[in-house]
Amino acid sequence: MPNVLAFAEARGGELRKVALEAVTAARQVADQVGGEVHAVLVGPAGVAAKAATLAQYGADVVLVAEHAGFANYAPETTAALVADRVKGGDYRAVIFSASQQGKDLAPRTAARLGCAIATDVTSFSVGGDAVIVTHPGYTGKVVQTLKLVGTPVVLSLRPGSVSPAAKAGAGRTEQVAADPSGARVQVTETILGDSKKLDLGEAPIIISGGRGLKAAEHFKLVEDLAAAFGNAAVGATRAVTDEGWRPHSDQIGQTGRLVSPELYVAVGISGAIQHLAGMRTSKCIVAINKDKEAPIFKVADYGIVGDVFEVVPALTAAVQQARQSSH
Q1: Among 244, 251, 249, which residue's Cα sits nearest to residue 269?
Q2: Dihedral, CA atoms, 100, 104, 110, 113, nearest 10 degrees?
Q3: d(CA 155, CA 308)
Q4: pTM surpassing 0.90?
Q5: 195 pLDDT above the threshold of 70
Q6: What is the 8-class DSSP label of residue 158?
Q7: Residue 172 above 90 pLDDT?
Q8: Cα–Cα dist 63/175, whole Å
Q9: Nearest to 250 by CA among 227, 280, 278, 214
Q10: In degrees, to the nearest 5, what angle opens at C-alpha 78 toward C-alphas 76 and 84?
Q11: CA atoms of 83 and 151, how far apart (whole Å)
Q12: For residue 71, which phi and psi values (nearest 5 degrees)?
């Protein structure tokens, strides 16, 4: 039976949530084709300790490559490691996250394999000799269904499109030799942002603000609502980041982050097509805007027509009360 390979993304020696999403997706495909899930984990010395976590989410084999050169992203060596493993085995699919790293690594790997690739995938299934996937197209205006033939295929999944699900795998560990020190491209330093902030790609809830907030200081309304949930990240539109109200790293949309959280709350966002491209695959969308004709309401599951300066504080208080009542 063909196996499925998942790339388990790590940062600073710690697994990212998208690593568990990739392994969960690989488990789903492997259960359809009857094979095993093999996960590739690269990082500095000590990263092998994370193999047990990957096994909890369905990895039967964890291929571990430890080297000091993997402390930073090593694109050439990592792509070669994954591709060589696939060439030497029987694999139906190779699954990455469509994270910033995965957007670079997946096409590198597909090029080395000379196989079909689908990026920013939001759903997938295996049928007969083809893998069927969906992904947003034309700046998110449509959802395209693609049929990938041939073996293997490379997929990169939009973060949040698959919820990590525990399902124990065999969890055998294999050490793999890899040395990125001779690669032509060397990442010499990685500067992390505010480590106290929940990453947009990993947050189950995102509260995002637009120009309807009128000024940078009014983003406190958004931050307060995010804090009330306790597990929410703060996002923004491009118009807001262009104004300097929020850092570019908070931008969601065609030229920013692509997200699919469980809940997306759009505060004072009109719904420009470029912004919708980055968030319309969210599981549940709540829009708050005083303009009932705003395009954001066309993609929203729940809409509140009203003044954000009245609605958001009331919503924050309601969330706080609900959480207190649940304790």
Answers
A1: 251
A2: -130
A3: 39
A4: no
A5: no
A6: P
A7: yes
A8: 6
A9: 278
A10: 100
A11: 13
A12: -65, -35
